[in-house]
Amino acid sequence: MSQDTNDPEPKAATAPAAPRDAVAAPPVRKWGNFLPRISLGLPGKLLVLTALFILLTEILIFLPSVASYRINWLNDRLIAAQISARAAEALPSGTVPPALRSELLRTALVRAIAIRRSGARRLILPPVQEITIDESFDLRERQRVGFSNDLALNLSQIRDALRVYMSDDDRNIRIIGLQGPRFDDTIEVVMPEEPLKRAMQRYSMNIFWISILIAMGTAALVYFAINALLVKPMLRLSRNMVQYGENPEDPGRIITPSGRFDEIGRAETELAQMQRQLSQLLLQKNRLAQLGLAVSKINHDLRNMLANAQLISDRLTSIEDPTVQKFAPKLIASLDRAIAFCNDTLKFGRAEEAAPRREMLPLKALVDEVAEGLGVLHDGSITWTTTIDQNLRIDADRDHLFRILSNLGRNAIQAIESDAERKHQGEISVTANRDGRMVSVDVRDNGPGVPARAREKLFQAFQGSTKKGGTGLGLAIAAELAAAQGGRLELLDSERGAVFRLEIQDRAQQD
């Protein structure tokens, strides 16, 4: 029995390089869109992905499985060869007739059998004709230890098994295995690889169809389970969001939570709450829009009527009657406030305020002008005190700042006048100071203060009024004008009355 030198393994073929002017490859699709181009819904994608992942798992299981099948098949050939060798050795003459030799080799599916004992090698069943050995495999280590944790050995067995599928049908291989307890007691057989290849192909097809059935069955079970637990609730959420978006003002389209206690249940609850809040806001916005339209229609006539009443009230100042002289200024001031209120209502209804034109201006003079406009300097019922340095300047829009302070002052006056339990002189004080680039202006009164229920929505129009019948426009407009200049307006805590603080920072170029 002769053996030729093993042929070197063929090198892996490499694809030719693409020419420079080749057509550019299409853009890479994102991972979530690698499925077929046909339109698949979420359930279809789930089913396909589940089947693909299970098939991938089966492939990973198939590789060591087919390697183990090859080893077991070769071990069976070694056992059959041992039986044939013992039958040949049991002959009294020690010579195996040609017919019996051919039958023993055919039964074991081998072409030659040799045995090595105590270092001596003997050819028991020689080949019928001269053969060439293409490759040799030593199974002694695998037979001795059984299953191995050696990763390199396992990978080598997988590689040898995969090479069988790509080998030629006329290859002859030599297999070396243990014959006894000694590592040197071996049995060697030379056999054609073609029967092994056919057996592995049959085994692979069986595994393939079993894997397909397992993959489809498992995919179906996983699909129905995930579809019931996740997909259907998610589809319900998406359908509801689409339907709600078509008419968010319809309260009947708000989702009804299913009562689940997992993440989907919490998502349904949060979505229902968000939809209810949005529907309420849209309803409120619609009502405010209708109110604004009505106000815009009647504002012109209302201002004309108030202007006529103001002209008539001006004539009352020429009457020398003490009672008239006492109440005429208050009547005129009330008419002025009513006209200012109409103007503020229209200004708030505009889409946006004019962009602020900021400049460095003296603050005390502007505060005195506000006090003069409010009429408190000539009214003895309320004392107005301004504690501001003459040299203090603020970087702000003059008109916007005047409106902010006017609204704060008017609210303070109204709060003091509405205090039925007031037993002391009404007082309003305005103080200001500079801290670096920041100027703070405090407007303080000794009125009844701001109720706790009004603090949460104090600066929201039509919601933050502190008195019955009020609209809350003054503070809403003041806060909006302050924010337009990069500042802020806030209510400070105080033991008595209310303290509003306005903070406006100088622009960077003013440093």
Account of the protein in words:
By secondary structure, the chain is α+β, with helices and mostly antiparallel strands. 52% of the residues lie in helices and 15% in strands. It has 11 helices and 12 strands. The chain has helices at 42-89, 98-108, 140-145, 151-166, 194-246, 263-316, 322-349, 363-374, 398-417, 452-455, 473-484, and strands at 112-117, 120-125, 135-138, 172-178, 186-192, 358-362, 382-387, 393-397, 426-435, 438-445, 488-492, 498-505. The strands form 3 sheets. It has a 5-stranded mixed beta sheet. A hairpin with a 5-residue loop joins β11 and β12 (498-505). The longest helix has 54 residues, at 263-316.
Proportion of helical residues: 40-55%
On the 0-100 scale, what is the average pLDDT? 78
Number of helices: 11
- End-to-end Cα distance: 102 Å
User: Strand count, sense and closure of the main sheet?
Assistant: 5 strands, mixed
Beta strands, count: 12
Order of helices and strands: HHEEEHHEEHHHEHEEHEEHHEE
Task: Supply the helix-strand structural class.
Answer: alpha+beta
Shape: rod-shaped
Radius of gyration from CA coordinates: 49 Å
Low-confidence runs: 1-36
Strand content: 15-25%
Trace the largest sheet across and list its strands: 2-1-5-4-3
Question: What distinguishing features does this structure have?
Answer:
511 residues; alpha+beta; 5-stranded mixed sheet; disordered N terminus
